[in-house]
Amino acid sequence: AMITEVHPTGIVSVVSDGAFDITWAAMRGLWDFSGRDNRVPDDAEIKKRLPLVNYRDVQLDYDKKTVFLKKKGMAIGLGGIAKGYAADKAMEIVSKRGVKNAILKAGGDMRVQGAEDGRHWKIGIRDPRRKDRNLAVIEMTDASISTSGDYERFFEKDGVVYHHIMDPRTGYPARQARSVTITGPDTLTTDALSTAVFVLGVKDGLMLVESLNGIEAVIVDAKGGIHGSSGIAKAIAGGNPPD
């Protein structure tokens, strides 16, 4: 029995044409963002491992509950979805305990339910270059919001900043955005999509977001320009005025 259904993470890989790919982990060891080793791997090392990065080479057998990786040396890394998954599961537990109004945050991923004093929760989207400033404030309830930013884990070498959000298609850090915030119906999806759209950049990223039901995005491009999907553009205008 081969794949009978596609897991949400698989769907994000398919719709983003591999911009989100859990098999990026074949690149582990080449890059280190812990601060210990600021080494930039050379092209040849990266090219050697790139053929091992391909979500299509992951075979799931739902009957036996097994995962098979077709190529020797492949690896899976679930960092791009783990916090989103955890936030959803934690909110399920909180809800079962009878808590109606809650915000649950795991790193850049957040789940909000119910209300604050009878009004929707107000969530700020921060400026990737200034922690004290919001680009927008969105009101939301029973929804999820995830942000991927180049400012979370990075190192600088020879004047170039290398951050931890890899473009699985090149083996290098993605270059088209500073931050991406996604809102949607569940945190597993928004977590995966914030990574995918970060890699895709403004044009392809917004095209993907507009094609998906219930998903909105705010993208800060590599030059600091701010772009929003159709359902969220008004909220951006209502953020802090630019200096």
Descriptive notes:
The protein is an alpha+beta fold and 243 residues long. Helix content is 24%, strand content 28%. The chain has 6 helices and 12 strands. The chain has helices at 8-15, 43-49, 82-96, 187-200, 202-210, 233-237; strands at residues 58-61, 66-69, 102-106, 109-113, 121-127, 130-140, 143-149, 154-157, 160-163, 177-184, 216-221, 226-228. The strands form 4 sheets. The chain has a 6-stranded antiparallel β-sheet, covered by helices on one side. Strand 1 (58-61) and strand 2 form a beta hairpin. The protein is globular. It starts with 7 loop residues before the first helix and ends in a 6-residue tail after the last helix. The model is unreliable at 1-6 and 239-243 (pLDDT under 50).
The low-pLDDT segments are 1-6, 239-243
Task: Going across the biggest sheet, name each strand in turn.
Answer: 3-4-7-10-11-12
The largest pleated sheet is described as: 6 strands, antiparallel
Can you count the beta strands? 12
The whole-number mean of residue pLDDT values reads 89
Rg over CA atoms: 18 Å
Structural class: alpha+beta
Q: Count of helices? A: 6
**Shape, per Cα inertia axes:** globular
| β-strand amount | 25-35%
Distance between the termini: 59 Å
Percent of residues in helices comes to: 10-25%
State the main characteristics.
243 residues; alpha+beta; six-stranded antiparallel sheet; two-stranded antiparallel sheet; 24% helix; globular; disordered N terminus
Topology:
Elements: H1 8-15, H2 43-49, E1 58-61, E2 66-69, H3 82-96, E3 102-106, E4 109-113, E5 121-127, E6 130-140, E7 143-149, E8 154-157, E9 160-163, E10 177-184, H4 187-200, H5 202-210, E11 216-221, E12 226-228, H6 233-237
Antiparallel strand pairs: 1-2, 3-4, 4-7, 5-6, 7-10, 8-9, 10-11, 11-12
Helix pairs in contact: 1-4, 3-4, 4-5
